[in-house]
Amino acid sequence: KSQAKRFRPSDQQTTFDDVAGMEHAKQELQEVVEFLKEPAKFQRLGAEIPKGVLLMGPPGTGKTLVARAVAGEAGVPFYSINGSEFIQMFVGVGASRVRDMFRTAKENAPCILFIDEIDAVGRIRGAGVGGGHDEREQTLNQILSEMDGFESSAAVIVIAATNRPDVLDPALLRPGRFDRHVTIDRPSRDGRVGILKVHAAKIKLADDVDLQDVANGTIGFSGAELKNLVNEAALIAVREGKNAVDSDDFDSARDKITMGVPREEKMTQ
Ligand code: ATP
């Protein structure tokens, strides 16, 4: 029973209002929300909802955030685990952890089961990396068989996230498993304005700050980087003893962040 406790849902409520931009992803996920709110409505008509949704996109683009928001919108529990946790475990524990996790989810349906960085455990099998990692393969096989084992009427939606969809074992993507794919890219200019608004609402802004300008100067930033930018600007303002966070603080924060990020990383995607 101690195992089940690890999968206690988080009580923190997140909704689509906390997620700026990515209208396309929110639209795709709205159907999952409707299903979790009222599974019977779908079941009456024999409509099958996908069991598994794969969110694909670069780090920090809000995959975890939007998955959490689906649970918040539907008012259902959100259970989450990181794929890398499975492989850090003792031999033989990965597969039983998977069983335990699915059992807990089924007992608490309707709910969301979120697997972040699924590529850690879901890399193509038999690739020989690390000498044919048996433990990892067993864990992956257990995930596959759990997904096959529950009916779509079970009202457990498994959402997985990855920034390496190219390395995933194709078996994960087959019908009845993670067959619904949602791509989440780095935000557009409008997306950046929206994300900046969400996070700037939490700080005291000076009148000279124009978030449109900030968005123009942050091409290529992810949501997580924009959140960090707002916070860095606020920290600089505090350090300088200001009453509000002004546009100079945003400039300094941006310089600090862009100079701190290795060039390579900025270039990929
Ligand atoms: P990773 O792949 O690194 O796990 P992720 O795609 O899951 O990243 P999150 O962890 O959800 O990204 O994003 C980190 C934080 O960045 C979020 O908690 C949120 O505060 C902020 N953020 C990211 N995208 C958005 C967005 N679209 N709107 C508002 N905030 C965002």
TrEMBL record:
Subcellular location: Cell membrane; Membrane
Segments forming domain AAA+ ATPase: 49-188
Residues forming coiled coils: none
Binding site for ATP: G57, P58, P59, G60, T61, G62, K63, T64
Function: Acts as a processive, ATP-dependent zinc metallopeptidase for both cytoplasmic and membrane proteins. Plays a role in the quality control of integral membrane proteins.
Stated family: Belongs to the AAA ATPase family. In the central section; belongs to the AAA ATPase family.
Complex formation: Homohexamer.
Record's protein name: ATP-dependent zinc metalloprotease FtsH
Part of the full-length chain shown: 195 to 463 of 674
